[in-house]
Amino acid sequence: MKISTRFAQRSFCLPALLALCLSVFSSAFAQNPAAQTETVDFWLPGDAGQRMNISGRVTSLDGTPVVGATIYIRQADGDGIYHSQYSGNVASNQRGIYQFGSVVPGNYTGERHVHISVDHDDYQYLVTEILFKDDPNLVDGSDPRAVFLEEGEVDGEKMMFGRFDITLVPN
């Protein structure tokens, strides 16, 4: 079977082309810090509980991304105990995207949850919670604050991933 020279040349050039594209994209991304997604990770090696990563998008009622919204996060650790390690904040980027890493909170009473407050000068202050669809204590699984956690793997370690979008009301 004969492979055309033109195809062979293209297939050998493909890795070089991909490397060039990644290099250009990485440089453009690094030169535009506002496009990057800031991440805060509360989890530390040895912490009790299942690791999770929550990401989402902050938008206005019309779907416009809200840039620079401060998302305050507070939750219990994997054993259901509140302490300062599991609280902090992160800002939404120019596409309205935010994310944070933590553990699935332990159950200290009632539904497992993460406290979320969102602040931006042009929008009404929002206080809400992230709930978890697989929580046996969740009374209403259709609650819009309940997220489905999907299992994934990062560097050989099991991690749960969820998405929690936030809609803000203009002042």
CATH architecture of the largest domain: Sandwich
Low-pLDDT stretches: 1-31
Q: How would the global form be characterised?
A: globular
Q: In angstroms, what separates the terminal alpha carbons?
A: 69 Å
Q: What Rg is obtained from the alpha carbons, in whole angstroms?
A: 20 Å
* SSE pattern, N- to C-terminal: HEEEEEEEEEEE
- In CATH, the topology of the largest domain is named Protocatechuate 3,4-Dioxygenase, subunit A
CATH superfamily of the largest domain: Aromatic compound dioxygenase
Number of domain units: 2
Number of strands: 11
Number of helices: 1
> Major sheet: size, sense and barrel closure?
6 strands, mixed
Provide an overview of this structure:
- With 171 residues, the chain is α/β, with parallel strands linked by helices.
- It contains 1 helix and 11 strands, in the order H-E-E-E-E-E-E-E-E-E-E-E.
- The termini are far apart.
Descriptors:
alpha/beta; six-stranded mixed beta sheet; five-stranded mixed beta sheet; 1 helix; 11 strands; 171 residues
Describe the SSE topology:
Layout: H1 5-31, E1 39-41, E2 51-60, E3 70-76, E4 82-91, E5 97-103, E6 113-119, E7 126-132, E8 146-147, E9 150-154, E10 157-163, E11 166-168
Parallel strand pairs: 1-5, 2-10, 2-11, 7-8
Antiparallel strand pairs: 2-5, 3-4, 3-6, 6-7, 9-10
